[in-house]
């Protein structure tokens, strides 16, 4: 049920073989979020699918006016200029063709990879030499204007090529105390706390963690793992871990890859259980292009049908603190944000309301808290 940002591909200007009949109405609530040289575009499905099910979506990139295809309601648009303001408009297609384009998104300027230039001059009685160097991105590179309709937390993205932590990301881990949820009578809500790889930069998500939910107004707690976007693993949906979880439990979750085998590990130190499972490299092969520490309001997909997914209500989890945060890339381990790993915070925002947001990273880069602020 985690979100996945799907790498979009170029779309041909026209698609043959369409049948006659009503086309979909325009998608709604198009929202753009800046990344490094990229933008995440999210939107709601049209109110009407037309005469046949929606096949995919088309995103118009303005001012380039190129068209990009997308098969989900959240897509990653790459290869954008950091000094250009962009808008996006989305249309849906069915067997009859492409429907109307949506109202344009908010304006957004992609982020620039952070570099700094320093000049040092040394003077002797006979010579003067000047040396200019480019330094890697700041260890705690934080962008505060990144929002998501589903996520709150921190994301690691590929470091500079000069960093010892070169991609791909190979492991991620963190610990937290399972938060106690406050439920509204008769209302369902959800909050997932997880660590993962590929949620921001790939077409799959490899993740595990805990769920803190309200079922008809009653608190429920559990643990899960998931390979989102991988049909061979539970059709790409989450798998519940059948061990007890309660508010106040101390949990450590990790995801790692070695020799084309993925390991999912969840430890509940309070309940004294450990869950471990392994999955061979699936198809599609994970890109290992980002790492995440997230609180999420997930999507629910009736009958495990991706076309029916809707975003759930976020549970009031008050606050949760991620500790002992670590990432590994190319076999080299490091705390979050240390040794040149670029990272940024993400706030969970729906409409104009911020529902949850991360605080700053701790002094060593190994901890932060996410706080619920509610509707």
Helical stretch count?
Answer: 0
- Topology as H/E string? EEEEEEEEEEEEEEEEEEEEEEEEEEEEE
Mean pLDDT: 78
Instruction: Based on Cα principal axes, name the global outline.
Output: globular
How is this structure best described in words?
It contains no helices and 29 strands. Helix content is 0%, strand content 48%. The chain is mainly beta.
Key terms for this structure?
globular; 375 residues; 16-stranded mixed β-sheet; mainly beta
What's the arrangement of secondary structure elements?
Elements: E1 6-7, E2 9-10, E3 28-35, E4 38-44, E5 56-62, E6 66-70, E7 74-77, E8 87-94, E9 97-98, E10 116-123, E11 128-135, E12 147-148, E13 151-156, E14 169-177, E15 189-197, E16 205-215, E17 218-228, E18 239-241, E19 250-258, E20 261-268, E21 273-280, E22 291-296, E23 299-300, E24 310-311, E25 319-329, E26 332-335, E27 343-350, E28 353-358, E29 368-372
Parallel strand pairs: 1-7, 12-27
Antiparallel strand pairs: 2-6, 3-4, 4-7, 5-6, 5-8, 8-9, 10-11, 13-22, 13-27, 14-19, 14-25, 15-16, 15-22, 16-17, 17-18, 19-20, 20-21, 23-24, 25-26, 25-29, 27-28, 28-29
């Amino acid at each position: 049920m985690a979100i996945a940002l799907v790498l979009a591909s170029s779309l041909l200007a026209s698609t043959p073989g369409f049948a006659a009949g009503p086309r979909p109405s325009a998608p709604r609530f198009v929202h753009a979020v800046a990344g490094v040289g990229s933008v995440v575009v999210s939107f709601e499905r049209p109110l009407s699918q037309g005469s046949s099910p929606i096949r995919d979506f088309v995103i118009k990139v303005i001012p380039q006016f190129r068209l990009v295809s997308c098969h989900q309601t959240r897509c990653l648009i790459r290869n954008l200029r950091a000094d250009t303001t962009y808008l996006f408009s989305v249309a849906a297609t069915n067997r009859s063709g492409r429907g109307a384009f949506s109202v344009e998104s908010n304006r957004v300027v992609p982020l620039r990879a952070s570099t700094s230039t320093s000049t040092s001059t040394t003077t002797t009685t006979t010579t003067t030499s000047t040396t200019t160097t480019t330094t890697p991105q700041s260890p705690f590179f934080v962008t505060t204007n990144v929002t998501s309709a589903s996520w709150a937390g921190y994301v690691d993205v590929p470091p500079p090529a000069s960093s010892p932590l070169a991609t791909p990301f190979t492991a991620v881990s963190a610990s937290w105390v399972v938060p106690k949820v406050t439920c509204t009578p008769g209302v369902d809500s959800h909050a997932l706390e997880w660590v993962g790889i590929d949620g921001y930069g790939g077409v799959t998500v490899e993740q595990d963690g805990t769920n803190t939910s309200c079922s008809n107004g009653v608190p429920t707690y559990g643990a899960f793992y998931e390979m989102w976007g991988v049909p061979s693993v539970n059709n790409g949906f989450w798998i519940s871990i059948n061990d007890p979880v309660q508010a106040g439990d101390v949990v450590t979750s990790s995801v790692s890859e070695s020799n084309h085998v993925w390991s999912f590990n969840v430890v509940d130190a309070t309940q004294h259980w450990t869950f471990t499972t392994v999955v061979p490299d699936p198809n599609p092969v994970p890109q290992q292009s980002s790492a995440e520490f997230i609180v999420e309001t997930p999507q629910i997909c009736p009958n495990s049908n991706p076309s029916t997914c809707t975003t759930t209500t976020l549970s009031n989890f008050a606050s949760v603190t991620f500790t002992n945060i670590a990432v590994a890339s190319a076999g080299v381990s490091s705390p979050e944000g240390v040794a040149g790993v670029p990272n940024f915070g993400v706030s969970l925002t729906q409409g104009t309301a911020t529902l949850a947001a991360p605080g700053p990273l701790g002094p060593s880069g190994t901890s932060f808290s996410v706080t619920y602020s509610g509707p």
